[in-house]
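Issue: copy button drops trailing tokens. Both records pasted manually instead:
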Amino acid sequence: MMARELHSVLDREPLPTVPARPPRRRPWLVPLLVGLLLAQMTVAMVTTAVRQTPTIDEPVYVATATDYLHEHRVRYNPEHPPLGKLIVEAGIAFADPHYDPSFVGDQGQVGRHLLYESGNDPWRVMLWARLPVIALTLAFGLVVFAFARDLLGPAGGLMALALYSFSPDLITHGSLATLDVPAAGFLLTSVWLLWRARHRPRLYVPLAGLAAGAAPATKMSTLAAVPVLLALAAWSVWRAETDADTEGRRQGDAPSTVEDRRGRLVRAVAGAAVLALGALVVVWASYLVVDPRLRWTPVERVPVVHGARALLVDLLPFPEAYRDGMRVQFGFEDQPWQGFLFGRLYTGSLWYYLPAALLVKTPLGMLALWLAGAVAVVAVRRLRPAAPYLLVPTAVLLGAAMTGSRDFGTRYAIFVPMFLAVAAAGVLALRRRWAGAVAGALVLFVAVSSVRAYPFYLPYSNEAFGGPDKTHLRLHDSNVDWGQDLGRLADRLRERYSGERVWLVYKGAGVPSYYGIEAADPRTAEPDAVRGLLVVSDSAAAKATGRLAELIDSARSIDHIGHSITVYRR
């Protein structure tokens, strides 16, 4: 009887449901992971920076920055505008090296005099010069994270930042007092701000203009992206106006008229003009900060250019020093540079050099994610609006770089791992169960490949091409041997080969004797006299002809320093 009554009650009154436990929120997790990724990149860059001797370009930039600091004039290195060297100057100010402004010589000689002949410690000076670029590289990592997060949420931001922070090329050039990473990072920042301008143009377009100006105020090659940035500025303002009009119609406002559309067009053009004005302000400001009087007397000869190049230079609304710098750059483009690719030494340039070099020097997992991400950005409907912002600037800049005459390294395409890190996060938008797991596995593969290369990031090549120790067989110059291992060579000679006769062919900006290396040049001696250790930078070996090639062919390789300098025994 009681059982029947109990069942009847249960039938009439269902048992109360237990409320579902809300998902645990960990607001600290994403900032923690961002901090960890940037921390490992910091460790990689700083520990690399303290062990590397000056690369070929660095003494020029450091000496120019020191001249800015002491003389407040633009005299050296006109082919690169001042902003990047002003960033280096921030570190030089702390190092406070002794500087002799009366020294007479070209910009390379001034750099060597500053580092090796003025009583300064080149290790200390170079570390302080590199630290501001390291800090800026980390800041650009936050831009990568923010851009990808805007598109795909925190998971996309973390994935993009992981690819950025483990990129061997970005670790390499982000740890040097050079201009490639700052220029590319300013471009990426401008594009990200223009993406955000689709919703708040009045705030973000002026900021994008300042970032857009910082790029050509650092490196002139970024001028190729300026037309793209102007178009994106106009498009972002147009989209913002169109979205506002669509929202107004939803709320019952009258449909837009021809005059309204004309007004949107005018405001879009005005947005591009605001970006151009901001860029001009930054370029001029970079020169005025150095010298408010804009004095300019070239120390070295400025080549004369003709035709369309001359017209372009004359039309640029920039200081005379900037325009002379462009003339110097055009002069460089006219020189018959030598290149080296997959064992072939050639004069001139190959249009496919940069894609081939990127194929060698990019982790395999990163290459796969770049390709898949680019496809996703185009194919996935909600990501498609980002394609002009991520893929068009990358394609335009890469196309411009591929037409250049200097096949010297992937640093000329350092913008690729920045922009495509953001695009690669688009893989997470694919509606496939396996997409996230595969993307995570590939990111882990990238991380392992990068960490295995530590601390030799500059000569990195991926596993398909044999790793860092084989890069010199396929590439040269800043891809593998940029003069960075002179200090390591001195340590190795002292530890393993003390007292042996050394013959040295070194390609770099360092001074071997400063590091205790006593050596002679084998190219000036009779072949039979060259006995003992023959030490050759891998870039010099790649381009060896005549006597040097004969000496290498008749010697036995016994050691490889930093994957960039080979020791032979004769």
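Record 2 (pasted manually too):
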Amino acid sequence: MLRRALPAVSSQIEQDREILVEQFRALREQIPLMYVLMFADALFVSFASYGTVAPLWSVGVPVLLGILSAARAWVWVRQRGEVPPPDSIKRQLFATMIVAAGLSLLFGGWGLGLYIEADLVRRACIALYIFIGAISCCYCLQSLPRAGHLVLVCGAAPVTICLFFADDWFLRGLGVNIVIVAIVILRMLRANYSGFLEVVTSRSEMAAEQRRAQGAERRAHQLAYHDPLTGLPNRRALAETLELQAAPDAKGPRFGLLIVDLDRFKSINDVYGHPAGDQLLRDVATRLTEIVQGEGQAYRLGGDEFAIVIDGDGENARRVARTIVYAASQPFTQDKQVHHIGASVGISLYPQDATDLETLMRRADIALYKAKQAGRSQHCAFEPVLDAEIRRRAVIERDMRTAIESDAFVPAYQPIVDLGTGVLAGFELLARWPGPDGHETGPDLFIPIAEECGLINELMLRLTRRACLETRDWGVPIAINVSPTQLKDPWFSQKLLQVLTQTGFPPQRLTVEITENALIVDAESAKQAIASLKNQGIQLSLDDFGTGYSSLQHLRMLPFDKLKIDRSFVTAMERDPEALRLVRAMIGLAATLDMPVVAEGIEFDSTARALARLGCRYGQGFYFGHPAAREFIEQSWAPRERKPA
């Protein structure tokens, strides 16, 4: 209730202030005129009584009234063009009432003295002049009714009372007439003052409503063009800024557009909650504003993405980008928590890279994508070759979606051989994408794109289903690769088990290969998926060991069945002693943990023999066979016989 009452009180105070100001403005125009009328009326009274009274009464008093009237008129005239504070206005209005009463008493008393000394005709003239003067002054004071009433009472009442007690009926009738006219004038003044108040109040309410509308418009503009969380201008404001600055004729001033994307921000949100994430965004906005102050403007596009419009050429844009990357890498402190994130920055320049808004934004995004590919916490300027690469990737993604729906992807199988006996130990499932023209798109190209656009799960499950049907009767294990993106899916293990159940493929013959990087991206999800798969009897292999975030903790805490050495070590071990020592160390570590080792990338017999001597259990590579379709495997593949090492 108190909250509802406060706006009403504030509105009433504002209205009272408006009434005071309008009273002052009206009196400032009317009071000088009132004193002119009073002096003129005093001259007529003086003329009517001249010669019948002493010169002091007929000349001296009018001169005194003229001097006092001129002084008061000057007080009001000099205030034209200014409006004093409300408290000062109140004091002036009070002073006006006091002065009006004093001058009216002087004017009325003077008239009464002249009336007593005059004959019948002059008495009537003096009474009329006095009344006309009082009524005129009262009318000029209609915006200050109390002062008008004082003028009428103090100025006209003495002579009017004498008229009522006169011996002549003519003078009595004049007195009655004056009273009637005075009553009518007072009612008119009251009505006029009520109208005055109504007009002022209406105008005040209209002004208040206009101010509210303007305030609402400003708030709407603030919400439409500013981000409520950080206070930065938003995407809409950026679009309008770029439309104004990026002239189609490329004759506008040079500037750079920087798209900034925060690295590792999601983990802050997940671990510490959205309040911490929101505060971090505000802190980032503050740092960006400080960096570009005086040179450009920071914007928030949404989520953890920001934009910078920076004046100057490409060198200045790259300098600011380097500063942003460095500033984002510095710790952010919140209460007792310290957060470490990073920032990747993409740069496009006007007019070198584009002269229109859409292209400028798209090319900055392309440069940002390239910066993230380079390892995050990097900045990259747009180059024409990047545009061609993105277009090519877009075409691949479009064709990939069609190919998945039409089952155009086919499984290929690469043999895994027991190095000690030369006997086939299983196959690794690999994806192949043959084109309609016979040209094959390599997995090193389409697998990363499938991971980025969220197609990898569907692609892998379709291939796994087909491979399970094709290899169900082979009687050997099959290994499949799982990407970090798939392990983030909480239903991944259930989906994979559903495929095995529907195809009748034994879980014990399936090996899921997981890279070390997958364990780093989302360790908790990976642990849950691994535990679920292991409970169903599926074998687990740690893939590409030695190339990622190698950690003994992974081998100690997670139930892996095999360890797979990356091909980069295997292909280099015969010519690089350091690579050989690393391979020996990895095989020794696996032996200590009673874990068989698979070496991939074997291309020569000498490499296979060397690995066998080191204690490596299994081998895989072109030496044993290239990845091939089911028909080739069933008809032509036979494991090479070799003597045990």
